[in-house]
Design a protein that fits this description.
The structure holds two protein chains of two kinds. In chain A, 44% of the residues lie in helices and 24% in strands. By secondary structure, chain A is α/β, with parallel strands linked by helices. The chains are: A alpha/beta, B mainly alpha. Chain A binds chain B through residues 84, 86, 89, 91-92, 114-119, 121-122, 124, 126, 128-133, 141-142, 145-146, 178, 180-181, 184, 191, 194-195, 198, and chain B through 104-105, 193, 195-206, 209, 213-214, 217-218, 313-318.
Chain lengths: 285, 319
């Protein structure tokens, strides 16, 4: 009896210690998370037998905008498509490595890629609203996939998302009209709103202004400044000035490798690598 | 000198214009010819029977007791084609979705080739296979069990089945239209831009949800067109139906049971054209052709209207 009681007390103490240790490690983890929203470790990607990404390591801070620049074919689009497991949707494409978002490796074996995409928003080169849907239905398309049918909740999210995408004032009186009736820049902001409606943790933007005119592009750039207050934004761009304008950090890629990753100001004023300098000064690319 | 060259070029263009407009005029001429031939040939029967040609159920070509009513064959045509579409189109959609959205190109390329090959098989081959093989499967696996279970209690299953009836004919027609309908649906779905798939996938849509929210809405007018093409083929198909449908005549051709033999407009024409001796009988057969022509035209126009309305809904689609 007594021995049993002692044992159980010992167990209790042990358990308490375990809890302490756990909370400690959780706190450490939390700290890490606050610093690095996205951590990419040893990421490699292929199209068939052609390697598109070679051993990428990269940490992205929370609520910042990070640009990925580099010449065509350097793997920058492949890189961000690996961050929501979109890359592997291409037939013959595969990826290997770790992408840790909020402390969770999205390439872990038990992870459903569909769930990952619901948590990470993505905006594409060309505006791609659903052509048969109204503005309203476009914004709630993702919510409906998640089974949300509550009209009042949807109304609220539509307003929030369109405001977040700086489109609300322009369309608030015509939410029932087809999304395709909007201009190209408005369509792109509609696509941003559609991504925001899912309340994503990370927003990926793949050359979001490449199909837009300069005025529409600058609106999207302004928007990125607002978005990074609430979301972690990773933006692929062809346009170095755009990278300099919108981002806090910039990653320069070349032939599937990450050449340099530093604060944007440093990257454009005083790059570490000669290759970066040559690209930024327009000597190739 | 330069003006000389220009003139030569313009003359060539003029000839080209005339040649193409001639080719285009052929379609109108052909339509006019067909309408005239059918209209002229069936004039006799329409003045003999009047509206009763559409509503009558009697079919008697014996001289002195002539009576021609096409209603049973209109019904037979519509329900056998209806079954064909009801069976063929969903299966075709499944095939098309698999080929364009699910399968890797290693599988979809050879499979697509096989389907195109099947689409090129003449319908009489399907007919022979159905007559000698497939109808016994239907008979033994579906019709006999249904007849044994419900034949005494439910009149709809009350006729002794032989596998030669409108039900079997409809199924075989469905099988016949699957290759062409699925092949067109696959093309239509592959034409949906990848950006639409990406949009759906990036919202966390599963493959089925992507098909539902991105592929179907974009491709629906093309899918409807494919279904209509299948319906048109099923309505017009002659020899296959003649082999399978049991070739009932008169009021007996109105299906009262799932297993009753029936007759379609085209199969009746094929059955009786050889033995049509009197002018009136011949005119009645051409009259059946006129009815068939009207049915197919109405269906085509309806489909066209449906498609154009759908296109209006998604107007302004920018690639």
């Amino acid at each position: 009896m007594t021995t049993n009681g002692e044992n159980s007390r010992e167990d209790e103490i042990k358990a308490d210690k375990d809890i302490d240790r756990q909370t400690e490690s959780e706190q450490v983890q939390e700290k890490q998370q606050q610093v690095h929203k996205v951590s990419i470790r040893n990421l490699e990607a292929w199209f068939g037998s052609k390697q598109a990404l070679k051993n990428i390591n990269l940490d992205v801070e929370q609520k910042t905008a990070t640009s990925v620049i580099g010449p065509s074919g350097c793997g920058k689009t492949t890189l961000i498509k690996c961050l929501n497991r979109m890359h592997e949707m291409t037939p013959g494409a595969k990826a290997k490595g770790q992408v840790i978002i909020d402390g969770m490796d999205i390439y872990a074996r038990n992870i459903d890629p569909v769930i990952i995409k619901r948590r990470i928003g993505m905006v594409f080169q060309k505006p791609n609203p659903f052509p048969t849907m109204s503005i309203y239905d476009n914004v709630v398309a993702g919510l409906k996939l998640n089974g949300i049918r509550d009209k009042r909740l949807m109304d609220e999210i539509v307003k929030d998302s369109l405001e977040g995408a700086a489109l609300w004032d322009e369309v608030k009186n015509e939410l029932g009209k087809p999304g395709m009736g909007l201009s190209g820049g408005q369509q792109q902001r509609l696509c941003i709103a559609r991504a925001l409606a899912m309340q994503p943790e990370v927003l990926l933007m793949d050359e979001p202004t490449s199909a837009l005119d300069p005025v529409a592009s600058s609106k999207i750039e302004d928007l990125v400044h607002d978005l990074k207050k609430r979301y972690t934004v990773i933006i692929v761009t062809h346009n170095m000035q755009q990278a300099a304008r919108v981002s806090d950090h910039t990653a320069f890629m070349y032939l599937g490798e990450l050449i340099e990753y530093s604060p944007t100001k440093k990257m454009f004023e005083n790059p570490e690598k000669e290759l970066t300098e040559r690209y930024i000064s327009g000597k190739f690319g | 000198m330069s003006s000389f060259f220009l003139q030569g070029k313009r003359r060539g263009d003029k000839i080209f214009y005339i040649v193409t407009i001639g080719a285009a005029a052929y379609t109108l001429l052909m339509l006019a010819l067909i309408v005239y031939t059918v209209g002229d040939g069936s004039q006799k029967i329409f003045s003999f029977e009047g509206i009763k040609f559409f509503t009558g159920t009697n079919w008697n070509s014996v001289e002195g007791r002539e009576s021609f009513g096409a209603l049973p064959y209109i019904i037979g045509t519509l329900i056998s084609a209806g079954i064909a579409v009801a069976i063929g189109v969903p299966i075709s959609l499944g095939i098309a979705i698999f080929l364009s959205e699910m399968a890797s190109s290693k599988i979809s390329t050879p499979l697509s080739f096989v389907i195109e090959l099947l689409a090129a098989v003449p319908s009489i081959i399907y007919g022979l296979w159905a007559l000698f093989v497939f109808r016994f499967w239907i008979l033994n696996l579906i019709e006999m069990p249904l007849y044994n279970a419900f034949g005494k209690s439910i009149p709809f299953f009350g006729v002794t089945p032989f596998g030669l009836d409108w039900f079997t004919a409809g199924i075989v027609l469905g099988i016949m239209i699957i290759p062409i309908v699925s092949s067109i649906c696959r093309e239509v779905m592959r034409a949906v831009p990848n950006t639409q798939r990406e949009a759906a996938y990036s919202l966390g849509a599963t493959r089925w949800e992507t098909v539902r929210i991105a592929i179907f809405p974009y491709a629906k007018s093309g899918i409807l067109g494919a279904a209509m093409l299948g319906l048109g083929r099923a309505i017009g198909e002659t020899m296959l139906v003649t082999l399978i449908i049991g070739n009932a005549i008169g009021a007996a051709a109105i299906p009262t049971s799932l297993f009753s033999p029936s007759q379609t407009l085209s199969s009746l024409i094929a059955n009786e054209f050889n033995e049509a001796s009197s002018d009136l009988h011949l005119s009645a057969l051409i009259g059946l052709g006129a009815v068939l022509l009207i049915i197919t035209m109405v269906i085509n126009i309806a489909a066209r209207l449906l498609v154009s309305r759908m296109v209006k809904v998604s107007a302004g689609v920018k690639e």
